[in-house]
């Protein structure tokens, strides 16, 4: 029986690349995103494996439970959960719509937590017969410091990193492993959706296919944290030793528009 990977935010960007990687490595797929048309196109492209399409908006409070129920009703078994869905917003906290920022917390934090909680018990059972069972959570290099100009986004990714590292520790010895992917700027729809196309950070974006491949390989090697790109790795390490105020000041500069 082929293992199955459930991937959120699979219609484009990193999620799309993850779907291609897992399919190429013999996984059946459950793909989740808001855009059903793009998911159906992905299903047609990856016709050499079984692909189940679940159109779902993860900003809705019951989305994770509904996804879990759909998978359970179809008697499918999730070996790998890729919590990739997420988005950011560029701007000062009190000038951005509160509802949009609440949606960000719902997608970046709550849905990720709920899906991990719901699928983890069965993963522990599946791990007895599978060497690559676990959770791949997509955080960001934003997780390593405060981010004026994208305050809620940075805070949400700090949660993802801390939560994932804690799970990684809790699950040692169970056969289930947790990898956190912390990419820097990546060539996806992120900056357009964040209304930050002119951010200085956008000019140093890495290819989504390269980032996804490093995340996938890190997961297969059972690494705890993967930071693609030498510049990003150095920056993440430096953020640990810099005064928090200085790290925040650097992030604020990178989140501002190029002059």
TrEMBL record:
A GO MF label: oxidoreductase activity
Oxidoreductase found in the keyword field: yes
Record flagged with keyword Oxidoreductase: yes
InterPro entries, alphabetized: NAD(P)-bd_dom_sf, SDR_fam
Broad enzyme group: oxidoreductase
E.C. number(s) listed in UniProt: 1.-.-.-
Signal sequence extent: none
Keywords recorded for this protein, A-Z: Oxidoreductase
Entries under PANTHER family matching the protein: DEHYDROGENASE/REDUCTASE SDR FAMILY MEMBER 7B, SHORT-CHAIN DEHYDROGENASE-RELATED
Family, similarity comment: Belongs to the short-chain dehydrogenases/reductases (SDR) family.
Protein name: SDR family NAD(P)-dependent oxidoreductase
Native species: Pontibacillus salicampi
């Amino acid at each position: 029986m082929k293992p199955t990977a459930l991937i959120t935010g699979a219609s484009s960007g990193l999620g799309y690349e993850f779907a291609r990687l897992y399919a190429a490595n013999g996984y059946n797929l459950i793909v989740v995103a808001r855009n059903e048309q793009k998911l159906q196109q992905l299903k047609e492209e990856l016709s050499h494996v079984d692909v189940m399409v679940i159109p779902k908006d993860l900003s809705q409070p019951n989305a994770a439970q509904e996804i879990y129920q759909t998978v359970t009703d179809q008697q499918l078994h999730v070996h790998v959960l890729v919590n990739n869905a997420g988005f950011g917003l560029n701007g000062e906290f009190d000038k951005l719509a509160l509802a949009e920022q609440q949606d960000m917390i719902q997608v970046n934090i709550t849905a990720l937590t709920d899906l991990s909680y719901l699928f983890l018990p069965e993963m522990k059972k599946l791990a007895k017969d599978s060497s690559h069972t676990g959770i791949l959570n997509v955080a960001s290099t934003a997780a390593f410091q405060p981010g004026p100009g994208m305050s809620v986004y940075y805070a949400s990714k700090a949660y993802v990193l801390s939560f994932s590292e804690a799970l990684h520790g809790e699950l040692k010895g169970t056969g289930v492993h947790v990898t956190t992917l912390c990419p820097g700027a990546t060539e996806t729809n992120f900056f357009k959706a964040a209304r930050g196309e002119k951010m200085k950070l956008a000019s140093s974006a890495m290819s989504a296919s390269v980032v996804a491949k490093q995340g996938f390989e890190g997961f297969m090697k059972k690494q705890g944290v993967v930071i693609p790109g030498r510049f990003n790795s150095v920056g993440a390490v430096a953020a640990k030793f810099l005064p928090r105020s200085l790290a925040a000041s650097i992030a604020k500069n990178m989140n501002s528009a190029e002059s």
